[in-house]
Structure formats: C-alpha cells, structure tokens
Prior knowledge:
Layout: H1 8-11, E1 34-36, H2 39-44, E2 49-54, H3 64-77, E3 82-86, H4 90-102, E4 105-111, H5 117-125, E5 129-133, H6 137-147, E6 154-155, H7 161-167, H8 169-178, E7 184-188, H9 193-207, E8 216-222, H10 227-230, H11 252-262, E9 265-269, H12 271-285, H13 291-305, E10 314-319, H14 327-333, H15 346-357
Parallel strand pairs: 2-10, 3-4, 3-6, 4-5, 7-8, 7-10, 8-9
Antiparallel strand pairs: 1-2
Helix pairs in contact: 3-4, 3-7, 4-5, 7-9, 8-9, 9-11, 12-13
Pyridoxal-5'-phosphate is lined by residues 62, 64, 90, 158, 188-194, 243-244, 290, 292-293, 320-321.
Amino acid sequence: MSTRYTGLINKYRDHLPVNDDTRLISLGEGNTPLIRLNNVPRAIGKDVDIYVKYEGLNPTGSFKDRGMTMAVTKAVEEGSKAIICASTGNTSAAAAAYAARAGITAFVLIPEGKIAMGKLAQAMMYGAVIMQIRGNFDEGMNLVKEVAEHAPVTIVNSINPYRLQGQKTAAFEIVEELGTAPDYHCLPVGNAGNITAHWMGYTESHKHGFANNLPKMVGYQAAGAAPFMRGQMVHNPETVATAIRIGVPQSWDKAWNVQKESEGWFDELTDEEILATQKMLAQTEGVFCEPASAASLGGAIRDVKAGKIPEGSKIVCTLTGNGLKDPDTAIAQCQNAEMVTIDATLSDVKDAILKNMEG
Ligand SMILES: *Cc1c(COP(=O)(O)O)cnc(C)c1O
C-alpha cells in the first residue's frame, strides 16, 4: 500500500464533510512539524515542555491552507466558479493558490499598504484578482459579506464553516504525535477562527477516545488590536503583526465559548514583545516565523515565567505563518546583524572568521 501523503482531507476524511466522490483540491497541506524547543526552556530556567507547531511549512506558508483545502473543495463540489475573501495577506495567498489548483477564480480584498511583501507576491503570482482597498481588514470583510449576496462568489473567509473543519486537523495531528492533548495550547488571535477550530479538533479527539484530556486554550493578541482584552470591538487596529491587525473578530462569540469551556484566557503583547520573541526564536532554535505567530510563544513564555502556566506543563504554541512572508519587518529588525563587506580575497575572509570567533 502506498504511504504517499496526499493532504489532510484524505488523511482525516472520516472526520470531515466529504464523501468518496468528492474531488479533493489539495496541495499536500498539513502534516507539519511539531518541534520541541530545547534552548528556550533552559534560557528561562523553567521545567516545561514547549513544542511549536510550525504551520509556516504548509504549501503557501501558513495554517490557512488547512482551511482553504476544505473550503475550495466544497466550493467546487457545490459548483462555484469563483471564491472571494478579505484578507490581511495569508488568506488571500491560500485562496489564490487553491483557486489556481481548482481552475476557478479568486477575488481578494486586501488593505492597501498593510500587507506583507511575500503575501502580496503570492496573491499576484497565483493569479488572483486583487482589490487593494483604502480601508482595513474589517471594512474589507463587511464588503465581502455584502457583495456575496449580489454576485456568484463563495466566501472563503473563516465564516465559511468548512474553513474551521479543515483547520481542526492541526489538533488531530498534535494528539497523534504526543499521544495526548497538551495541557496548554497557545495561539495568536485575530478573527479567532483558528483557536475555535483547534478546540473543535481537541474536543472531537477527546470524544473519539484519541486523547483523554483537553487543553486550556490561550489566545494572545497584539496590544493595538486586542478586542478580546478590551471586551469590545476596536475601531482602528494597529500592529506590526499585520496578520492579526483585526478589530472586529468574526468568531467573537465562539472564541469566548472556547475560553470558558477550556478554562483558558486571553492576553496581549506589545509589538516590541512580539518582535523580540520572533528574533529570539529564530536565533536560539532556528525557527523563523512571521511576527503574528510569535505572539503565541511570547505570551506562553511570559505566563510560564509568571507561574500562570505551572512547571511540569506540556505546552503547544502554534506558529501560524512562515517568517519569509514578511522580509521587510525581519530585515528592519536586524540592522545590527553580523554582516561585513570585505574584498573577495582569502585573507579578508580568513580575518573575518577569526575576528568573529574571538571570545
Ligand atoms: C490568519 C492568521 C492569524 C490569525 O488567525 P485567526 O484565525 O484569524 O485568529 C494569525 N497568524 C497568522 C500568520 C495568520 O495568517
């Protein structure tokens, strides 16, 4: 029997809304690495087991592929010829790629000037019809909901229920690998679809007897875009972590239920904390995630240090997107990087090596 991995719908088809005749639109998404951190727990001097689920290794570089394979598969099954989304970048990249794969059209609305370079390159390259709006994600989302009532397009934002169905499989993978659910699962929160989807995945795993425990779900927001901390919508969200620059979360009620049922919590990080965590993770563990993703680990470390997450805990942090998505923010943070310009001679290269190995 072939063991070739052909994507998460095929692997988890018994737990997803497909049947044997469904044409699967897949790019081999899912099955991402769960990396155990070695140096971070040592550096903070706490006895905790921290894993990062590196979703940046999905086909278009973010967890959005998990939801998009399902949403586009169902759109095609239902006869749709076009999909549409509002996006801070990663949803548009995923929508564009899966639409190309399916041979249908993707329309994407993105906030002008507020989308990371890699994500814009992807939407262009995969051939989406791009509408840059003079407005933010939340305004784009309202427009998408309205226009879908007047034009033959399927919405593939996370209000499309198939998105969360696909995304819940990340929890299945974690339970499979650990043999249990973690004690804490930490995620960055924007629209709060992913935290909702993970909880769905964990509760289903529990119900089917694959895990005999459930994690506390912890959602971290950027301080300038933290409606869950404010207890109300935020009208001009601002953060360097553009993927979570959202003031009107589409899964607001669902995420509050997740917080209550799982006995977890929400918290916020400043942009400085987010960027410092992103760089620390890259430099101490060799894992490069995008800024928004680092909110999960930055928040978890803070809560471990404070004792809110006790020693002995097993923690999973979702790294939602790949660091290569946002090269501008990365380079801007590394202006003091160890880079020298030298002549192309053996002696200069040798000198540079010896100088950097002193001490
Ligand atoms: C979409 C996204 C998020 C936010 O996920 P929600 O489901 O909207 O809460 C976080 N990080 C990255 C990189 C994303 O692309």
